[in-house]
Amino acid sequence: MMASMQYETARFPTPPSRLSMRRRCLIYGVLGAVFLGLVATTSSRAASTNYVSLASIQKDITSFTKTLKATGSVSYALNSSVADQVLHATTESNTPKPLAGEKCFSNGFVPIMNPDMSECVWTNPTSDVTILLFGDSHAQQWLRVFIDIANLRGFRLVTLMHTACGAAQLTSRPSVQAAAREACTTWHDKVFEEIPQLHPSVVIFASSIQDLPSNAYAAEVELNGILTRALGSASRVISLHDTPNQQFKIGGNPITPAACLAHNQLKTIYNPKAFTKKVGTYDCYRPFRSTLYAVNDATRDQVAQADVDSGVQVIEPMPWFCNVSSTGLCPPVILDTFIYRDWAHMRSEYLERLTMLLDASIKTIPKSPVSLRIATRTSTTATFAWNKSFDGHAPISGYVATVSPGGKTCSTVLLGCTVEGLTPGGSYSVSLRATNAIGPSANKILTFKTLR
To answer: Which residue range(s) make up the domain with 433?
Structure first.
């Protein structure tokens, strides 16, 4: 059974009346006509598996680029899987449901006019590592991927997400109504009060770069400062940069990548002037950088520089969608997966192919060491041993075992150490933690007695 997830929709102008009915039918009606004879399944999922390296993605993008330039177009008309995905571009299957949460909305997402906070727990409520995902629909689009990663690593995933109210949009989008901006401001105030109470191991935030304040640099620096103070370390703040915007125009009116491909009968068409293209073209791919996206590119540059200056972790996903060279392209389909749900959001089917790459990009505190045990003991000493757990994608710099009462410790980079000077026949507990560059793990605790 296929269910639709509620998403923030991209806001673009409604086509004016001068767009003829004939052209509207051409743009929006040909989609069905093109696919009637091609689609034999109701599933919109691609057959591809997860990417394990950036090189694999870039190889597939390069193949698209070479074919496009050599033949003048790339056709997907004979690929029923791609055709089906384009037809169902806005449909999401297997909608995730939160496990619990404080005033948690059913899809974890606060509506645009609502100032309330929706704090949702999606995985492993008792885990010793908490990942907090914070932002607007550009954070939400990654939700299924983060759920997969949290389940893989045993993390607790918590979300704080709001429609049209990005993490760095501290006063919301200027293009929305005043009531929505006020709701966004109130929501931010609540979120920033709540974050320290959640004790997250890391906060990962994502926002649409569209409608960011004119000085995006200052807004990003301010946000990074707030989160760094809340967590006590910039290294525990992760900025997940925005995904590409794919807006095409026919007759001066914006259309989605799906509508563009439908207009072209499932073909991308090579446009040698794409880097300075004018209104009226519909090639259905975009250059990584061009005059058409100059405003967005400038905002991206401001955000990136702010994150570098703030010292936070950065995840830059653009190379997962585009060749990021000066003449690079961003295809609408990579291998056999259609990428775009609308102008500004990605389809979960493609994002899920990036699970391993995103997982490897997240550096967090390590999980607690496992199998803590007494290796040997005497009347005055205890030697402990343990096994290594997940290191949070950052090398373990050391372990510290602390014995109570008395506070005696031993430190090591190995998987065992000895504490001396204990009392014969004494009852003790030992707390063990691992540390990496992000911070210390939660303690692993074991009780024991020395020999008499």
So the answer is: 370-449
